[in-house]
Each structure stands twice: as structure tokens, then as C-alpha cells.
UniProtKB/TrEMBL annotation:
It holds the Pfam family Peripla_BP_6. It comes from the Bacteria. Residues 40-389 form the Leucine-binding protein domain. This is Amino acid ABC transporter substrate-binding protein.
Amino acid sequence: MESTATPYQETKHDSLSPPHPVRRRRGLALPAFAQTAGQPIRIGSTLALTGPLSATALTHKLVGEIYVEQLNKRGGLLGRQVQWIVKDDQSKPDLARTLYEQLVTSDKVDLLMGPYATGAILSAMGVAQRYNKVLVHHTFGIPSMAKYDMQFPAWSLGHRPQETVSNMLFDMLAASRKPPKTIAIVTSKFPSIHYMSLGGREVAKKRGLQEVLFLEWDFGNQNFGPIAARVKDVKPDMVWIGDIGLEGNMLLDAMKKIDYVPPIHFHLYPAPGPLTKSPEGANALALTIFEEHPPFTNQGTAAEFVALFNERAKAANLPDTSVEVQAAASFTAWQILEAGVRGANSLDDRKIADYLKKTRIETIQGRLRFDGPGNYGDDLMKIKQVQNGAWKVVWPESFAAPGAKFQVR
């Protein structure tokens, strides 16, 4: 499956294009780059439009469509309109690798944008490295595996999130009126999820929590009944759920069937809309970089983007019509790519990469830098909670939604 999200319009010749060999016409020497006058800048990517990751990837598709549309209304890039070519990787990293090869070699796109989810991003990163292409990506969860020097993360979790993110979570819990003493850790083996869960497991032990259960499941699992039963048996104060997409919903549904509600449940990367709409999702905790409330909506174009996304997501019948961590990460990735092209004044991948490495980029989630290990900068993650059917940031308190505080059942 392939779609071109935004049609291009003819524009004036881009005088910033690199020189090409000349051609002859009526005795005059004309540069071949004149042939590109009015042609779009083509950006290629894949998304998991089908398969187990599609519920979240559809959010990324809508964000990309909005961003490219608005970018073209502002005149595009380097005097040319922008066309986004999207292929469906079906939630399969191996297929993503093949499709990125096609984008570079057959479709001959000018630039790349990363796919959704760590496995697919790692596949795309390998292709980008082979062809010396910049790859901006938005949801890569294992920074230590980001070895390529022209990849740039919009997922601002720092270069050691297994420690920094976990400690932030347990800092919040320790400061609560009823800190947990026991923990059950149940997790998918999906690479980034597993990585973060193992980090959380070590941090929990160091902070004195008693581990009463550790269970793993294969990505794509549909039967969460046995896991729910094991959790209920050990009666933990807190359940760490290493989930992605709808896995968390399926586990909570299985718990409901056996009349069990976890006192505290933390989710890594759930499908945000379905969790807020489920009664069992009440008081769920998760990670975020942005939610559609102050102080986040007070900066830059955030409020404008939120209003537009709300409208388009509702019209598209998406399961979540609000801007949260996934939509914000996707929007940030496009901001980074645009800033790189404008700053370099070029489509040359090396020039774009050099500019990004030495420049702080203003984004919907704050100023990002790419001068740390693996091109990662600061850990900007926050903790949010489902309260009254909506996600509200509760920690750090300086970023909390107006009137929102961490709630313990």
C-alpha cells in the first residue's frame, strides 16, 4: 500500500539547488537543474498503516499530512513544494527495510522521514546509513542502538532512558501519600519496550521495591488472561506494564474479567486514545513529552496545531482526537527536518546533518539539541495520568495540568 499524502504544485525554479551538468538547447548552455523547476521535494517514509501497530501509526500519518499541507501553504522548502510518499510497512521491520530501499533507489526521494516504532526505525536507519541519508525519526526507544551519525531523534528521552525515565517515575511515587512497596513487572518482548522494562526493573530493585512477579510475552500476543491471573495472585501495590499499542487495553480487559483492578498501573507506550476511553484505563500512568494543556500549549505554534489536529482527527474517526506524546513526537520530527533543510539551505544530507548537530531546534516540546551520545540531548519525558477521561501531566509538578495531581486509587 502506498499513498502520496500531499499533491505538489508547480513553483518557481529553486536557485539553491546544487549545480548539475549542462545541456544544450538552441545553441544555449542550460543547466540540467533547470529541469527541476516546479518539481516537488519528495520526502519518503513508511508507516505501520496495517498490523498491530496501526492504531498509533495512523496518528503519525495524520500529523504528517497536516504538517506537509501547512508547509506548502508557507511556500514549501527552498522555493519548492513538498510531496510526502508513504508506504505501508504492515508493522513489519523487514518490510520497512525493503520499502526504504525502494524509496531511495527506485522512487529516488530527496529526503527520508522515519517510520513508527523502534524495530522499523532501526531497519530504516540501516538503509539511511548505506546511502548516506539523513534520517529524522520520532519514536526510537533504544538510544544506545542509534549508532549512525546522521540519525536525529525527536523522541527526547535522553541517552540513558532506562535509568532517567524510571527514576523520574519512582521519584513521583515516593513523594505520593501511599508509596508502593511491591511491584509486578509484566512486559512485551518488543525491543524498546523490553529494554525500558528491564531498566525499570533494575531501578525498582535499587530503590527498595520488592518484585513479586516478572513476566514477558511475545509481541503480537492476544491472550492476556493467564498474565492477568498471575498479577491478581501476587496482589502488587503497583503493576509496571511494558506495553505498546493496544496491549495494555487487552491486559486491563483480562483483569476486569477476573474482578481485579491494579492499585497503580504504569504503561510504557500505550495507544493513548483507547486507554482514555476505557473505564479500566482510569488513573493509568504513562510517559509523555506533550499534552494539549498549559504550559505546553503556550509555546510556538502548539495551540494552532492542537486545534487543527483535533478537527482533522475527529473527521477521520481516529480513536484519539487529542494531541499527546505520539502526535507531538511526529510533529517534532517534521519540525526538525524542516529546520535542517532551511538551516543548511540545501537538500544535501551531510550539510543538513552538520547543521542539526550544532544547532538547538525549537519544537513543540521545547528546544532540542543533538550533541550528546548517539545525537541524543536531554531527557524531556514527563509522567501523565488518565483523569476524568483525559491525559493530564502530573509530574514534574512544574509541567502539571492546571489543578492536576497524581491520584492513587
